[in-house]
Design brief:
The structure holds 2 protein chains of 2 kinds. Chain A is an alpha+beta fold. Chain A contains 26 helices and 21 strands. A 6-stranded mixed barrel of chain A has the order 3-4-9-6-8-7. Chain A has a 6-stranded mixed β-barrel with strand order 13-14-19-16-18-17. In chain A, helix 16 runs antiparallel to helix 21 and helix 23 crosses helix 24 (about 740-755). Chain A is elongated. Chain B has one domain (about 5-240): Rossmann fold. In chain B, helix 3 (about 105-115) packs parallel to helix 5 (about 145-160). Classes of the chains: A alpha+beta, B alpha/beta. At the A-B interface, helix 15, helix 22, helix 23 and helix 26 of A face helix 2 and helix 3 of B. Bound molecules: adenosine-5'-triphosphate (ATP) and magnesium ion.
């Protein structure tokens, strides 16, 4: 046993550069895996921490004002299982004006002093005093807003009150991903009452802290039983808010995990190439070892041991680095929740990573190590290891026929001397290329979507909403407005299917033809006086209801359950909201049931060079400042930019590991063919030609890897985005990849790959001929 | 006849760690164009070292080598490589063919490295192969050939660029007697056509093919005698021990 250890030590120290490089590759993948696991295990930690610090409510109930009394509230507060409450809270849905935009918000009344339950986290500025306003940071996220700005609150009757924004706050029970909840602004109870004296208009809500945080559903059921039917309009479950808060972090986990896996695979490839050649080059030595009494098992242990030692060292170092870096992927969440975070590192984190790394090391080493262990002693001693003899492969003959210079020819030929090794290195490079292409495709796809928002279902340039102005007046204003090419109006209707599932219908009317609705399947509504009972549906709705294009859908409207309404679904379009669970139908088809409807929202298509400010001014003046006009934003969200950066960084790691592999492969190849190189030099190959020959092998691998990896990368991205998009009911994604990228990608990867072989090439170029030839 | 090779006071010291070994201790000699010279001497006397220095495979510790108008010490690595491929042909004891290339490709290799155009290289290779009687082996790979055939391929490869000087280190050392004789017959034929040849050998029968024989001992030239008489050469060699 001691002999085996001695030999392992000698072998590792005998190849210091290679051993270090392999350890680095393994450490890198261990780091990424540790990061991924730490991220997964701690994804909810920033929220949990903020939740605890703020003593947040576990459930927030929203009531129908007309169906509840204060007595009911008191009864809810004294339910078993409820340990504390926020007390009845008042709110008011209202329009405010900020920076020229008019926005719907929910104005919340809060106690004069920070409350005991569900405190707000003040991230900038301070808690509001009289006549001051605190904005939720989500409002600041949607509209440029900072402390010191002024928000104008429009009171009933049209009177306006300007209030200074004194702070930005995070509310642990406001769910970003709940589309129908407008952003909050907060006033003290006193200011609120002054601005909105009409108590009948107030919305009522109540936050509860529960003895058992998981008992939200039971408590809600109790409340529903206690109150009159439909008195509880909706509620927010803290677990849903946490899910939303974790979403971005989970995305980080997916990417880190994927790249960690890739990196481990790449490291396995490095090991596989290196162990196979070590075994080959030590063929004779193995024979001698066996001759002096090493058993099969000992030889096997010798090679497994060598790489397992590297795996353990690399794994532990990688885990350590991963632990040090682990706050990074959680940072976005932690920062946005104003907590600091040091993720908990449990043995449950270290063990799987170490096991994974060691397992892969054994897997990569096994085949060659066994081959070494099984060598025939006599044969091994007498033949040693020479590259296998083979005839020129067709590719080399083709290259010869093309008249390529002889070093290039020999370089290409070397690819086939050890085809398995070339393949492994090629796969490794291909992985790197796929990573880069993944980043590029994501980038191009996003750009395409930003350039053409109709791809994500935003088919219009601007939205106008009306309040007091009549529908007819608004339409005539829009008809005359400068730069408005076309518009349609929309009225949202809530409907229910026969089995009680409810969703929203966009009832539309107007010049729909002018808008680039993206119909993924089937066709658009026939607009020119066609049948009234046609509709198009989002992918999410079709999936949810198990319908297909061409099917009929029958629904009922609220309070009109006896008069069902049927549409034929003629197409599927890209729906941007509600996970695609929406339907577009002509307003006329609903008016038979609803009576006359006057929409309040208008979607506009502007002339290419229209001045939006001019349109805004025109509408403002024409409507006595009643119409609000907002332009569709065309910015890439910041979190996506951050994600791209992360992906490119990870792709570079893959490329770096591939570089190690190229170095490794070239070094081994050069070592194996020192004699041939010596002969070639003797017959007149110059040092530069030798370097060229070695570089050609690597460069050619890079070329093939790019040509193979690019389409694979695009396909992979397409698959991944498609999967995400199906998950969100959005419909087909259109991935874009600019083929011009290849113009830089091919030379870049070829160069990178050649860089990996520069040192071995240089070494080969300087090989002393005489010693090589004498060495036989 | 004009002098082709001029060796002056050549010294070569090998250093391996603490140990130094003086392989050549001041060798001077001249070889005229068209000469066929054999070098003999006991094992370790420096024969291969001398051959390598003359062929520009290695650099001397002291002294100079001139081949034609090329003073080898003045050439850098790249120029030395170009010099070798243009003016020197090597034949080794162990053939040293490139296994993965066909016989034809092996022979063409130095020509292609020297940027001779493909058609010319091919024609020259075919000519040489048929002259050496192995034209029918052109498409085979080296490992499919007998030792003698492989050595003939090596000779063809050495001759393809029409070198000033053909250097052979124990060309028959790895062959049976008949194959060795055949190789020597070919070399003398080349000599008859005007090729300057320098051959290192242990075998008096081989040395006898040469015009004259130089004897090397302990890194110095210790004698010279005409070729032709194998038993005389053997006797002289035996005196050196
Ligand atoms: N690279 C080297 N490093 C150290 N010593 C060397 C080296 N090459 C040759 N020598 C030594 O130089 C001396 C001459 O070697 P050389 O190979 O020229 O002898 P040789 O006459 O060709 O012998 P042989 O007939 O056995 O081939 C020998 O003592 C040898 O050990
Ligand atoms: Mg020798």
């Amino acid at each position: 046993m001691f002999a085996v250890f001695q030999k392992i030590k000698a072998d590792i120290l005998g190849r210091p550069v290679l051993s270090v490089l392999i350890t680095i590759a393994l450490a890198t993948s261990a780091t990424l895996l540790t990061l991924a696991l730490a991220t997964l295990l701690n994804a909810g930690a920033p929220y949990d921490r903020a939740f605890a610090e703020l003593n947040a409510a576990h459930v927030w109930l929203y009531f129908d004002r007309e169906l509840v009394r204060t007595r009911d509230i008191a009864r809810i507060e004294s339910l078993p299982g409820v340990v504390d409450t926020t007390g009845l809270r008042h709110s008011m849905p209202n329009r405010v004006e900020l920076g020229g935009e008019r926005v719907w918000v929910s104005i919340q009344a809060i106690p004069a002093q920070p409350p005991r339950v569900n405190r707000l986290m003040i991230q900038r500025g301070h808690y509001p005093r009289r006549d001051e306003l605190l904005a939720s940071r989500d409002l600041a996220y949607l509209y440029p807003l900072s402390v010191g700005d002024v928000i104008t609150v429009e009171r009933a009757g049209g009177r306006k009150v300007a209030l200074p924004v004194v702070g930005l706050a995070y509310d642990p029970m406001w769910d970003i991903y709940r589309g129908n909840q407008p952003p909050y602004v907060y006033l003290t109870e006193e200011t609120f009452r002054k601005l909105f004296p009409d108590r009948q208009a107030w919305g009522w809500s109540l936050g509860l802290r529960l003895a058992d945080p998981q008992a939200v559903d039971e408590v809600v059921a109790q409340v529903e039983r206690m109150l009159r039917k439909d008195a509880l309009k909706s509620y927010t479950d803290w677990r849903d808010v946490k899910q939303s808060a974790m979403f971005e972090v989970q995305l980080n986990f997916v990417f880190l995990g994927a790249f960690g896996g890739f990196a481990l695979l790449a490291a396995a490839l490095v090991i596989a190439t290196s162990v196979s050649s070590t075994v080959l080059s030590q063929f004779r030595q193995i024979g001698i070892l066996k001759a002096i009494g090493f058993t099969r098992g000992q030889v096997l242990g010798l090679y497994l041991g060598q790489y397992l030692v590297l795996g353990l060292v690399g794994g532990l170092v990688g885990i350590l680095v991963g632990i040090l870096l682990s706050p990074l992927p959680l940072q976005s969440a932690a920062v946005s929740l104003s907590t600091t975070l040091r993720p908990r590192i449990a043995p449950s984190l270290i063990a799987p990573v170490l096991l994974c790394v060691s397992g892969v090391v054994v897997w990569a080493t096994w085949r060659s190590a066994r081959k070494g262990a099984n060598t025939n002693t006599i044969q091994a001693i007498t033949t040693g290891a020479e590259p296998p003899r083979h005839r020129l492969p067709p590719l080399t003959r083709f290259a010869y026929w093309l008249g390529l210079p002889i070093p290039v020819l020999l370089g290409i030929n070397d690819l086939f001397v050890r085809p398995m090794r070339s393949l492994l290195t090629g796969v490794n490079l291909t992985l790197g290329v796929m990573g880069i292409v993944f980043g590029l495709t994501l980038n191009d796809t996003l750009k395409a979507y930003v350039r053409d928002p109709s791809l994500v279902g935003i088919v219009y340039d601007a939205v106008v909403t009306r309040e007091q102005t009549s529908h007819g007046k608004t339409r005539s204003l829009l008809n005359r407005a400068p730069g408005v090419i076309a518009f349609y109006s929309e009225h949202i209707v809530e409907v229910k299917t026969g089995d009680g599932r409810s969703f929203q219908v966009r009832a539309v009317q107007g010049a729909l033809d002018a808008f680039p609705f993206r119909v993924e399947e089937g066709r658009f509504l026939s607009t020119a006086g066609g049948p009234m009972n046609e509709a198009i549906a989002g992918k999410g709705l079709l999936d949810w209801l198990g319908l297909r294009v061409g099917d009929l859908i029958t629904v009922t409207l609220e309070d009109k359950e006896h008069r069902p309404l049927t549409w034929r679904i003629v197409g599927q379009y890209a729906e941007r909201s509600n996970a695609g669970q929406m339907l577009i139908a002509p307003l006329a088809s609903l008016e038979r049931h609803l009576g006359h409807v006057e929409p309040k929202v208008y979607y506009l298509k502007l002339a290419p060079h229209a001045d939006p400010e001019q349109v805004r001014r025109y509408l403002k003046r024409g409507s006595n400042d009643d119409l609000s006009f907002s332009l569709v934003g065309k910015n890439v969200p910041e979190s996506i930019l951050y994600l791209q950066l992360a992906i490119l960084a990870l792709a570079s790691i893959l490329i770096a590991v591939a570089l190690i592999n190229v170095f490794n492969t070239s070094l081994l190849a050069v070592r194996e063919k020192t004699r041939v190189i010596g002969v070639l030099k003797a017959v007149g190959m110059t040092p530069w030609q030798v370097i060229g020959m070695v570089n050609t092998t690597a460069g050619f691998l890079g070329l093939v890897a790019t040509l193979v990896g690019s389409p694979l990368g695009v396909a992979f991205t397409h698959m991944l985005l498609g999967m995400l998009s199906r998950m969100y009911g959005f419909g087909r994604v259109h991935t874009a990849f600019n083929p011009f990228h290849m113009l830089f990608l091919v030379p870049a990867i070829v160069t990178i790959s050649m860089i990996g072989s520069i040192i071995p090439g240089w070494w080969a170029g300087r090989l002393p001929i005489v010693e090589v030839i004498r060495g036989e | 006849m004009s002098t082709l090779v001029e060796v002056r006071e050549l010294r070569k010291v090998y250093r391996t760690g603490e140990v130094t070994c003086e392989a050549l201790r001041g060798v001077s000699l001249e070889i005229a164009a068209g000469d066929f010279v054999a070098i003999m001497g006991p094992s370790g006397s420096g024969k291969s070292t001398l051959l390598h220095l003359i062929g520009g495979l290695d650099r001397p510790t002291n002294g100079s080598v001139r081949v034609g108008e090329h003073l080898l010490s003045a050439l850098d690595e790249t120029k030395l490589a170009r010099f070798r491929r243009a003016h020197i042909g090597f034949v080794f004891q162990f053939f040293n063919l490139v296994d993965n290339l066909t016989v034809q490709a092996n022979v063409e290799l130095p020509a292609l490295l020297a940027h001779v155009d493909r058609r010319t290289a091919r024609r020259r290779a075919e000519e040489l192969l048929s002259r050496l009687g192995i034209a029918d082996q052109a498409r085979k790979h080296p490992w499919e050939l007998s030792g003698g055939q492989q050595q003939r391929v090596a000779i063809a490869r050495a001759l393809i660029n029409r070198p000033l000087l053909l250097l052979a280190d124990e060309p028959t050392g790895n062959l049976d007697r008949a194959a060795g004789q055949e190789v020597m017959r070919i070399l003398s034929e080349c000599h008859r056509d005007g090729q300057t040849i320098l051959v290192v050998t242990h075998d008096p029968l081989v040395a006898a093919y040469a015009g004259y024989v130089l004897f090397l001992q302990d890194g110095q030239i210790v004698g010279r005698m005409p070729g032709g008489d194998p038993s005389g050469i053997a006797g002289r060699l035996a005196e050196l021990g």
